[in-house]
Design a protein that fits this description.
Layout: E1 8-13, E2 23-27, H1 31-36, E3 43-48, E4 51-60, E5 69-72, H2 74-80, E6 87-91, H3 99-106, H4 113-124, H5 130-140, H6 147-159, E7 172-176, H7 186-195, E8 200-204, H8 214-221, H9 228-238, E9 240-244, H10 245-248, H11 252-264, H12 269-282, E10 287-294, H13 303-319, E11 323-330, E12 338-339, H14 341-353, H15 360-376, H16 385-394, H17 397-409, E13 420-425, E14 430-435, H18 437-446, E15 456-459, E16 466-467, E17 472-478, H19 481-493, E18 498-501
Parallel strand pairs: 1-5, 2-4, 7-10, 8-9, 10-11
Antiparallel strand pairs: 1-6, 2-5, 3-4, 3-6, 12-15, 13-17, 14-16, 14-18, 15-17
Domain Pyrimidine nucleoside phosphorylase C-terminal: 431-498
GO molecular function: 1,4-alpha-oligoglucan phosphorylase activity; thymidine phosphorylase activity
GO cellular component, one term: cytosol
C-alpha cells in the first residue's frame, strides 16, 4: 500500500444532477470520513488519473453506498473523467487564495482588479463553496460594486474563460436584459443582421427560472450544442449563429455566479453589467445592442433604474473598448403570442415567413432592434437601419438566411405543438389594464416549460384591449394531463394576473 493508500476509495457515478456543483458522496462510517474529520458540506480535494477536483461532501447515512466507495455527482464525474473502476485519493484542499478578498468585500471594502481576478479564478476552479459564493454575491448586491469594481469584475470574468478572435472587422451582437416572457427577438434579429452581410455570432442562455431561454427556443428548430470549432465554421459560412453559450464556456465564472444569484433574486447593476459584457467581449463582439425592457414586473422596473443601469453599461463598455448602445423597450407585457420553447419558435417562424397570423408586436420589436443594431455598425448611415431591416424581412432574405444558419448548425426542424391544451377564461368584462409577467411565466413553467418543449402559454390579448367575461384570456399547453392541471390550478388561485377593469 502506498503512503496515501488509506486515503483511497473506488469511484462510482452517483447518477445525481447537482446542477454545476461538484459533489462527492461518502458513507459517514467510512475510514476517510472518520480519520480526516470530513463532515457534511466539507470541501474535499479529489485526485484521480492526474486530474484534481474540489468538491463538496454530502454524507450518506443509508446503506446504498459501501464503506469503500465514493460516489460522484454528474457534474463532478464529468469534470474528473475517471476511468472505469478508477480509484481516487481524498484530502483537505488548501484554503482558497481569494478568501481574504472575499472577507474584505463582505465588510464593505473596495476590491482591486487583482482581488477580483483571484476570486474569479477560484470560482472557476471550484475552490469556493456555494456558501462563500453566496456571501460574495450578497456583498456585491445593490450598489455595493462601484464603477471601477464593475470594470475589474468584467475583466476578470473574461480573463478566466475562453475568448474568440474573429480577425479583423466588426462583430455585431445583441442582448436582452430580460424579465419579459416570450420576448424571442434574437433569432429574427440574427437572421436580419446576417442577411445584411454582417457577422453576428450569438451565444445564448438556457432558461434557469424562466419558461424558455433563447437557446431552448432555438433548439426546437436546430441544434445549439456546438463546440467552438463548429461555431466558427457556421459563422464563417453563414455570417451568424445562435448557439448555447454554456457549451463554449466563454465566461464560465458568470455561469457559476448566475447559478448562485437566481435563487437569491438579488438585483445588482454591477454584476449584471459584468455578466452581459464579459460574455460579449469573450465572444469577440465589437458592437453590441442592449435591449432593456422597462416595466413593473420586468427585471428593470423603473426609468430611474434604467438610467443607472444604462450609465454603468456605457462606462464599462467604453473602458473595455466595446461599442455599446442601449435601447429601452416596453416591459409591461409579454411579447409575441407564445411563452415556452415550441410556442416561441412558432412565433419566430411566423414572423420570418410573413405569416398573416404572426404576432405584430414581435415583428415590430425585432425590426426596431435589428434596425438599431444596423445603425451602430461601422459605416452605417444612422437612421437607415430600420428600413434596411424591414426590406430584408419582407423580401424573404432573412428567412433564407435563418434556414441556412439552421442547416449549418445541424438541420432544421418544425416546432411540434403540445398534446393537451385548455383555455383560462376571463371572469369579468372590461379593458385589460395590467398583467403580471412573473406569474404568467410561472403558469408556463408549471405546465412543463422549458423541459417539456411544447408546453407553455398562448396569449393573444394586449394591454388596452376589451375583454368579455367567458372569453379565453390564454390557452395553457402541456404534454401531460398532470402538468396541465398544475398550471390550471395556479391560474385559478391567481385570477389577478390580468387586471381587467372598466375605467
Amino acid at each position: 500500500m502506498t503512503l496515501d493508500g488509506h486515503k483511497r476509495m473506488r469511484l462510482v457515478p452517483a447518477g445525481i444532477d447537482t446542477y454545476q456543483q461538484p459533489v462527492v458522496y461518502m458513507h459517514r462510517d467510512c475510514d476517510i470520513c472518520r480519520s480526516e474529520g470530513f463532515t457534511a458540506l466539507t470541501r474535499i480535494l479529489v485526485s484521480s488519473g492526474g486530474r484534481e477536483l474540489v468538491a463538496t461532501l454530502n454524507v450518506v447515512t443509508g446503506d446504498w453506498l459501501g464503506l469503500d466507495v465514493a460516489a460522484l455527482s454528474d457534474e463532478a464525474w464529468a469534470a474528473l473523467q475517471p476511468e472505469p473502476d478508477a480509484w481516487a485519493v481524498f484530502s483537505h484542499p488548501d484554503p482558497p487564495a481569494s478568501t481574504q478578498a472575499l472577507r474584505a468585500k463582505v465588510f464593505g471594502q473596495r476590491l482591486s482588479d487583482r482581488d477580483l481576478l483571484g476570486l474569479m479564478r477560484d470560482t472557476v476552479d471550484d475552490r469556493l463553496s456555494d456558501i462563500e459564493l453566496a456571501a460574495f454575491v450578497t456583498a456585491c448586491a445593490g450598489e455595493r460594486l462601484d464603477h471601477e469594481e464593475t470594470i475589474g469584475l468584467t475583466r476578470a470574468m473574461v480573463a478566466v474563460g475562453q475568448r474568440i478572435d474573429w480577425g479583423g472587422g466588426a462583430v455585431l451582437d445583441k442582448h436582452c436584459v430580460g424579465g419579459l416572457p416570450g420576448n424571442r427577438t434574437t433569432p429574427i434579429v440574427v437572421a436580419i443582421v446576417a442577411a445584411a452581410g454582417h457577422r453576428i455570432p450569438k451565444t445564448s442562455s438556457r432558461a434557469i427560472t424562466s419558461p424558455a431561454g433563447t437557446a431552448d427556443t432555438m433548439e426546437v428548430m436546430a441544434p445549439v450544442v456546438l463546440d467552438l470549432a463548429t461555431m466558427r465554421q457556421v459563422v464563417e459560412r453563414e455570417g451568424g449563429c445562435i448557439v448555447w453559450g454554456g457549451n463554449v464556456r466563454l465566461s464560465p465564472a458568470d455561469d457559476i455566479l448566475i447559478r448562485i444569484e437566481r435563487p437569491l433574486d438579488f438585483d445588482s447593476d454591477g454584476q449584471l453589467v459584468a455578466s452581459v459584457l464579459s460574455k460579449k467581449i469573450a465572444a469577440g463582439s465589437s458592437h453590441v445592442l442592449i435591449d432593456m425592457p422597462v416595466g413593473a414586473t420586468a427585471k428593470v422596473r423603473s426609468p430611474q433604474s434604467a438610467d443607472s443601469l444604462e450609465a454603468r453599461l456605457a462606462i464599462t463598455a467604453r473602458m473595455l473598448g466595446l461599442t455599446a448602445a442601449v435601447l429601452r423597450t416596453d416591459g409591461r407585457q409579454p411579447v409575441g403570442h407564445g411563452i415556452g420553447p415550441a410556442l416561441e419558435a412558432r412565433d419566430v417562424l411566423q414572423v420570418l415567413r410573413g405569416d398573416a397570423q404572426a404576432p405584430a408586436d414581435l415583428r415590430e420589436r425585432s425590426l426596431h432592434l435589428a434596425g438599431a443594431l444596423l445603425d451602430i455598425a461601422p459605416g452605417a448611415v444612422p437612421g437607415q437601419g430600420r428600413a434596411r431591416a424591414e426590406e430584408l424581412l419582407d423580401s424573404g432574405e432573412a428567412l433564407r438566411k435563418f434556414m441556412a444558419i439552421c442547416q449549418a448548425q445541424g438541420g432544421f426542424s418544425e416546432p411540434v405543438m403540445a398534446a393537451h391544451t385548455q383555455p383560462v377564461l376571463a371572469m369579468r368584462s372590461g379593458r385589460l389594464w395590467d398583467v403580471d409577467n412573473r406569474r404568467l411565466a410561472r403558469i408556463a413553467k408549471l405546465a412543463g416549460a422549458p423541459r417539456a418543449v411544447a408546453a407553455g402559454i398562448d396569449c393573444r390579448f394586449r394591454l388596452g384591449t376589451q375583454v368579455r367575461a367567458g372569453e379565453p384570456l390564454f390557452h395553457v399547453h402541456a404534454q401531460s394531463r398532470g402538468e396541465l392541471q398544475y398550471a390550471l390550478e395556479y391560474a385559478a388561485e391567481h385570477p389577478d394576473i390580468f387586471s381587467i377593469e372598466d375605467r
